[in-house]
Amino acid sequence: MKQLHYVLRTMWHNRWTTLIKVVSLGLAITMCALLFARIAYMQSFDTGFNDYKKLYGISMKYGFEGEAGWEHRCLGPLPKLIAEAYPDQIEAYTCTFNSSYCPRIMVDDREIKINGMAAQPDFFKTLGIDIIEGNTETLLQPDNIFVSEETAEKINKGESPVGTTVRTDAGLYRIQGVYKTVADNSTVRPDVVFSLADAQRNWNFQANCWNGYFRLKENIPQDRLDAMIEKAIRPAYPLTGQWDLSGVKLGPLHEVYKNDEDVKRMCTIMAILGTALLLIASLNYVLLSISSLSKRAKAIGVQKCSGAGAVRIFAMFIWETALILALALLIAAVVVLNFREPIEEMIATPVASLFKGSRPWILLGITGVILLIGGVIPARTFASVPVSQVFRRVTERKGAWKRVLLFVEFAGVSFTCGLLCIMSFQYRHVIENTRNYNPAPMALESNWTQNRAGYDIVANFLRNLPYVEDCAGSSWLLADSFEGTNVGNGVHSIFSAVESNMTDIMDLNIIHGRGIKAPGEVLINEKLMNSLHLTPEKALNEDKVINPGYAGPYTIVGITGDLDLFGAYSEAPDAMIGCPPDITYNEWGWNYNIIAVKLKPPYKENLKKLNEAVAEAYPDAHAEFHLMTDVIKMQYSDIRIFRNSVLTTSVIILLTTFMGLIGFVADEIQRRRKEIAIRKVNGAETADILALISRNIMLVAAPAVAVGAMAAAWVGELWMQQFAAKIDNLWIYYVLTAIAVLAVILLCVTAMTVRTARENPAISLKSE
User: Is the distance from CB of 286 to CB of 374 less than 8 angstroms?
Assistant: First the structure.
């Protein structure tokens, strides 16, 4: 108790230093816990299903004429084909359609946003999802649905929704059952499950837009499983058939997400950031503690004279570190509770989900590391203070320790700031990247009409609004999804069907020829022209007809620049935009799924007016247009979220480092105050004194910042591997960031030193 009493008195006596330690550790613990918990969360995807290790997903390697790649999807008939071939090994299987099947349901006048999925009745048994109420066999009927427990609460607020009829853009559906809500970190997480028969009414079941899942009765070695799948599918899908099924495989579902290259890259960088922050926070605590040695050495000497041994002094400082950690954890809890919404937006994950299961051990591990580093090193240093310290006027410098710690902190600041700089400029680059069309005036919404006559009425209504220049329909949304087709000679191209005025609405950059003016005309991009070994003259004159299917052939009337269809993650593909004959409107895939409106400026104000007018004219549609610029930003939401995480980490490291720097400089000034006074008496100017202190700091800072910049370049290159479109001359950003960090360090040191440098030397020497 005496030790605890003394520790509390010491902490109160040095309350400002204690406050700095508590705040810096509290912020560091918060961010470290979020980063490491996020990694654990991502690594445990798809483990929330019953007996998840027996749950397998199907991946298909498909393509045209040798162009094949692995995709976590399959042809619709494949799951049944495989399951029927091996009934003794496969307990259950299901096929699903999950391409944003239904984004919302309407209950009375309420709109509920959902992630809708179409599936077979065995979906719940296969995935391992508990049924709370209802008979899954009712999903054989296309107008029946099951809802999650979470969605059921939104619909009837505590009462069973079974029997309730809800409305979607496609019609009316009756709720037949309720199932347990799937865990957040799941790649298969529907809010509402529709009948697969409903999906088959609108989508080609023979195509490659389906997902297959299997529950095995026993573990099967991967090589044997591959052989089984090959034997099952090859009679129905020979290698010389329409689909080049050069490979189909089953793999554990819980390994698919965490083995994705982007996920592994993200986890690696977060682990580096978390480790850097943890070490910097711990070493900063050590730096602040050792920097106070000159003030506390005599007090320790007095305690030793009073009988305290090295073990007791060691234990006292461990107690002090433990109490500061407890206060830091309290600060962390306050931060999370009061800033929960911005934190969840930053990490795109509910905070509660991050710390479920065994993940609270992450917090204990973080505090353990800080206690080990931040407690043991200062405790040993203070315990070694000799009794003779009571009778000495000058304490031991421990300069080597402090400079090493400061080096690590400066390197950490340079590293995180360099990484933040690259991420910020790359995000800006992909958002503002030249796309050969102008997304700024475009507003988009799903087509809520059911037939051509209804669409024409809506289109005329929109065109007559005073703040709308024009509107057009398209079957697929640019920057979202397309249909692939083989145009011959081994060339695989993207195709999007549009109305003839769409090229004007998009302000397409047409390099050769003209825009589409009538049905049966098509634009191709430069890359497709080159893939077909055409010249502009030949494409527009000699070989002007191309037949990609889709009610073709089409006449090539223009050549556009390479459209940024897949974003910055992939190179621009071979692509064409065509206007099919009107007679194809009601055929599968040609019902103009998207309505694009070209607004007059100012765009945001007119978007608001547009949505108000549509809501008044079509209240049952629950339509809401969005600017295409916002749609594009959503493509890169992962970059923005990760950039914000790095920004927060950088700010915390920056604050932590400068707290340590302030303590170090203050200790240096205190230790060298009389030296500075003597130098001034001998004629030294203020600038000389500033240079004296700054030089010592910069000798540590310059190499540390260089090391941090090189580390940032290495991690930045790792992160940039996911992009096809990158900013140029990356090294310039790292150099400029390093110079900026050095300038801030120098400014901070100068600001702290200038007062002492200007001080009357008599004040420091009067006691001599």
Answer: yes
* Pair of tokens at residue 261: 């290259």
Q: 442-446 and 594-599: which strand pairing?
A: antiparallel
3-class secondary-structure state, position 549: coil
pLDDT per position as a tens digit, 644-672:
888 888 888 888 887 777 777 776 776 66
Cβ atoms of 673 and 763 within 8 Å: the answer is no
Report the alpha-carbon distance of residue 126 to residue 82 in Å, rounded. Answer: 14
H helices present in 348-398, as ranges: 351-354, 360-370, 376-383
Rounded Cα distance between 228 and 85, Å, is 9
Query: Looking at residue 430, what is its pLDDT?
Result: 80
Average pLDDT, the chain: 83
In which region does residue 507 sit, left (phi positive, over 0), alpha (psi from -120 to 50) or beta (all else)? left
- Of 60, 117, 122, which Cα lies nearest the Cα of 91? 122
Token pair in block for residue 367: 């505090």
Which residues, in sequence order, are bridge partners of residue 107? 110
How many residues are given for the chain? 768
Q: Which H, E and C letters describe 707-761, residue by residue?
A: HHHHHHHHHHHHHHCCCCCCCCCHHHHHHHHHHHHHHHHHHHHHHHHHHHHHCCH
Q: 549: left (phi > 0), else alpha (psi -120 to 50), else beta?
A: left
For residues 187-195, give the mean pLDDT. 93
Mean pLDDT of 149-173: 88
Question: What are residue 599's DSSP bridge partners?
Answer: 468
Contact 514, 558 (CB under 8 A): yes
Residues with Cβ < 8 Å from 672, sequence gap 6 or more? 693
pTM of the predicted protein model: 0.80
Q: How far is CA 302 from CA 14, 18, 306, 692, in A?
A: 18, 22, 6, 34
* H or E segment to which residue 452 belongs: helix 452-463
What would the pLDDT profile of 322-332 be if each residue is shown by its tens digit? 888 999 999 98
Which amino acid, one-letter code, is at 222? Q
Residue 467 and residue 606 in contact, taking contact as beta carbons nearer than 8 Å: yes
How far apart (Å, rounded) are the C-alpha atoms in residues 157 and 588?
A: 38
